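Lay summary. Proteins are chains of building blocks that fold into shapes, and those shapes determine what they do. In this project we predict the shape from the chain. Here is one chain we studied, written as its sequence of building blocks.
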Amino acid sequence: MRTHPKQWLTSFLYNIADQDGVTHEFILNGLQHANELLGEAVFHLEDWKVIGEYVYDSEGGHHRAFYSPVRDTVVMGEIIKAHERIQVEQSFKYRKDACDGLWKSAGALETDRWMTKGEDYGLHLLIKNPLSFSLNPLEYARESVPQMSDWESLWATWDTITRRMLPNEELLDKPIKLRNACIFYLGHTPAFLDIQLTKTTNDGPTSPRYFHSIFERGIDPDVDNPENCHAHSEIPDEWPQLDEILAYQGQVRNRLSGLYDNGAESIPRDVARAIWVGFEHEAMHMETLLYIMLQSDKTLPPPHLPTPDFKTLARDAKLSRVENEWFDIPEQDIILGLDDPEDALDWDGHFGWDNEKPRRRVHVPSFQAKGRPITNEEYARYLYETGKSKVPASWATEVVVPSIQTNGHATANGAGFPVSFLQDKSIRTVYGHIPLKYALDWPVFASYDELAGCAAWMGGRIPTAEEARSIYTHSDFIKRKQAENKLAATVPAVNGHLLNDGVEETPPSPPDTSSLVDEEDRTWPPVQDSDLFVDLVGANVGFRNWHPVPVTANGGHLAGQAEMGGAWEWTSSPLRRHEGFEPMALYPLYTADFFDEKHNIVLGGSWATHPRIAGRKSFVNWYQRNYPYAWVGARLVRDK
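And here is the predicted shape, written in a compact code that computers can read:
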């Protein structure tokens, strides 16, 4: 791979490096190959030349090569004017940090590299990251029921977390007192799946049968009064031995694998629903267990990844900061939810939890929204200015020995608070505690109550669930418009015939939902996968990173679904029964048990959220408003 040089040097080199015409002849030879494939002399090489140029724009530095006729010529009945350019090559040049970003976006890990002395050229050895999920909806949601390969990827990540990051001595610990001991989750996910399969296949439960009674359901007590807790499985005086739980897990996995023996398409719809429920349940609890583990000092880092250079990342983030802009969100109708009738065994659409159904339309008035979420630095400033001493649970307070060289009155690089305010504070990560000063540009994780106070202090409020969805809808519209404009601007420069043959230059209009539903019988047209799942490429979800990432360079863009730097997004809407809601037959208490006016809806996904969840537009999550441990952030909105 060619690394990114300075623009002036590259332009100079491209002008002199091909003095012997080798590159020209190499690229021109492509036309001769075209003639051979077509079986006739369509291109006469003496009529063509090759143009090479170096471009440095918003996409970075890259070399482009074009075929260009030296005179008017005819190709397969089409006249191509002299000097018109037809692009044949585009070769990007990457800096080291850009290379790292490219590997991550491709789901790859660099295991070795061999560079030239000046590090202008290099050979990189990459392997597929076994613990990273595709962010392309054509892959992560290609079928309604997870494929066996999806399960294998999920289990690889789950096993890494539970067997290589969770030490045995921590299994019986309760890093969060409001939750069960860590060992519960090792038995909970297979037992829950086994229960759903038992309900739908008419086969008996996996042995030992009593695991259903102790591992079926966890606890979620009231934060204010832990004695008040919803129905849950009995908590034994002593948990089963680890080896017994792992053997049970293996049996349940084998039971599941057997259902795929004749292909996923042969699985009945009701059994497929049980499989889907078990898959998303395990994916959700993978994140639950991780945020529990981060409250412990015993947790080990992911063994397959090097520790990030947080100091350098923080320096680069500070240099890349832009203003966090206000965006006008127009008044619009938006679509919520999906249709997924549980009793229709011939239905082939995607599955959804009960709170996602039915598909419906709501009207959202106009308002304004910030482009990105509140950061750790902004929250630290809020604490300092208001004199509050309680820090978020995602932070930690360290014991710091005072230094006579410390100037307690010096400000933290213009942050609005003294350097000393940061000295005893750190951020909890899977790599251990890192100084807060290295995570100032990350989204802050905190409870709704904490962030609502900060939002009000900053001159805004937290959006409702409908407003958040309206933000996502408008963000999608902006992206489509930018993509159309970019295509319209670039395609004619490559080949004007494409424009003449019908490339659409008109920017897309906002979606008109007025005709989507027949008001007489409330019937909807079938939802397309492209309408239900978002492209997550570029989002910090699905273990693309094992930590949040800076968001301060993104203030000039309106963050869409799951684009909060690795944080879920709080809304001010309590979790409530909506019109048409019906508890799901397979798991009736999934949502209905939390209609207590204490839980608020959260949307999007964190860095540890599976793409099937983070990318589904209808998915709804929730936490108690004062629950401090989940990885949820917030952005500001205000009325116009």
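What the prediction tells us: The radius of gyration is 28 Å.
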